[in-house]
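Support case: user asked for a sample of complex input and structure output to validate their parser. Sending the pair below.
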Amino acid sequence: MTYLDHAATTPMLPDAIAAMSDAMSTVGNASSLHSSGRRARRVAEEAREVVAEALDARPSEVIFTGGGTESDNLAVKGTFWARRDADPARRRILVSAVEHHAVLDAVHWLADHEGAELTWLEVDDHGRVRPEMLRAAFEQGHSDIALATVMWANNEVGTVNPIAELAAVCAEYDVPLHTDAVQAVGGVEVGFAASGTQALTLTGHKIGGPYGVGALLLDRSTPAVPLLHGGGQEREVRSGTLDVPGIHAFATAVRVAVEHRREVAERTVKLRDELITAVRSAVPDAVLNGLPADSADRLPGIAHFTFPGCAGDSLLMLLDAKGIECSTGSACTAGVAEPSHVLTAMGADASAARGSLRFSLGHTSTQDDVDALARELRGAVDRARQAGLAGMRKQKQEA
Amino acid sequence: MRVLAAMSGGVDSAVAAARAVEAGHDVTGVHLALSAKPGTLRTGARGCCTIEDSRDARRAADILGIPFYVWDFAERFTEEVVETFVGEYAAGRTPNPCVTCNEKIKFEALLEKAIALGFDAVCTGHYARLSVVDGVPELRRSADDHKDQSYVLASLTPEQLRHAMFPLGSSRKPDVREEAAERGLAVAEKPDSHDICFIPDGDTKKFLENRLGERPGDLVDAETGAVLGRHTGVHGFTVGQRKGLGIDAPAADGKPRYVLSLEPVSGTVKVGSSQELSVSTIDADRAIWPSEQPLTGPTECVVQVRAHGGMAPAVAEVDSDGDAVRMSLREPLTGVAPGQVAVLYSPDAEAGDVVLGSAKISATA
């Protein structure tokens, strides 16, 4: 099997598995006062320090959550509520058009239910939010802005945003910036303090940690109203008994991913570039989406292509049948492939947005994976082209 | 063979897919998303376009260990099935959307895409017996009289039938349910789907009113020409309908009155007695012959004009180019509406009546 979907989830690191199973064999609620509780608490607090150190944050800024979606929701809704409570005029959210659904759907919910107004930050053809676009949004008036949210790196096309520059613009207007760094951590250098952002989302299963655990790095001076109320854990921002084994494994994965980032990235970039070359030689008219292949502002592992004349879901099925696993980059709960909102925001038309595939590499990828794709891609594309967009609309040549 | 199993999320298509797997085929499951509003979550698990159904189909595919995908045919379904349905009613005809869906979606849009992607056949959970001998398809009624769906498949062309697979044709529904339970398929107890899938509440009249608005016209006594009342549109009526005509005064002879004909241009609905409703000759055109051989000379057969019931022995004669059929019924039928499909069967109690052909009803007398 050829796994080219590391951006969806990547295999757990052996160190993280070991950490998780070690912690799972002990008992202790980190909120308990007795010795077992203290032991559990120590594991959780050490994990907090590990995450903080790896990401240039303070331990008190680390809030453990149930993963990326929760962190995004907490950052967006929690900050919106807190800022609006402090000043009812603050109802506007600046949000990039290419965010993950965990951010998009959260801001839409706020607009539908909480009176939020959304200002969309457009992206350039490469999927990048430019600082001048952000500045232009502020210049239209800023006293009513609750927060801005721009992802560090895009999960579909792998474009990395100039987060520090964007944060500097936000700082001029004293507006907090949240960044979804789920794809960035472990791929590019991520430092919370240096970034100048006030909130940063990360999750375990994209970096070799377990599913269902992640963190929000939240600046101490940026208040957030909790989504979950209860025992007051995590500075009363995120109640719930701490998942000590998950947190221990997550922190282990963050540490290993950051420690080995350079060497893994170097290897991954090399494989990715070979993959890009292989795709282009098999299908000369395939279009690489996002920044040019040699740009430094690409994630190491992602190569996203449009295959003209193909339906992405046909291509995915044909490659799947050959043991090659990749993604169309977006899916909805019913499993119907929708045209990617990311590509649409980058200016692609609907058929190009439907005819795209994401190949993503990670820490276990090898040359064999690239070779397997190189072997099977041409045949799959030829077939998918024959099928064209068959079935999607009525054939006009009918009598 | 490489087989694409269309999986609705119901018990029949799940067992059909299971049998295709067991027969040694390389099977891939596909659920067709047909609803323009994919978020609709309908309770009661009826129909075929909800997220719930998609999930049921996925679970069945998991258990069978076959790949599974959801393909979006909503645009095409809306265009070819829903719009046609509304348009036919507006034109005073009574269409069968399941026939259109089989003809245009499952065995045209889906089959075309499947073949282009390298599949040899599309497998469904329909109850009808199909065999292909030396490239000549033969379609027969199901072994289960109650479930027989040969009527809604009779409009498929020989080429479509050559790429079709109906593994449930020789089975009875209770046995299929039992088999589903034995195979550990959770859909074993799922209720049968009824009605029209894109009208989940079953209120066809309201659906058409929403789509077509009010188109008032007269209710007219066919014999005397007397105007008996007004109505809000011919699409609210079907030939043979008795209830809901909204006529206060009884007929002179005191007998119930039925809809005899619909005239969409003038908006006239003609009503009359059950005798006048009786039809002894049916003309139909756009004939399709599964064996590729139109009937020659007068042929004794059984004609069926609705998905359930509406059968009569008849003599059928076909014009020279094999397109138009005249059926002289040996026993009269009622409720025969233009737009419906007439299917011609050659009776065979042992192996199932054979579909000789089908055609769309254009006129009755």
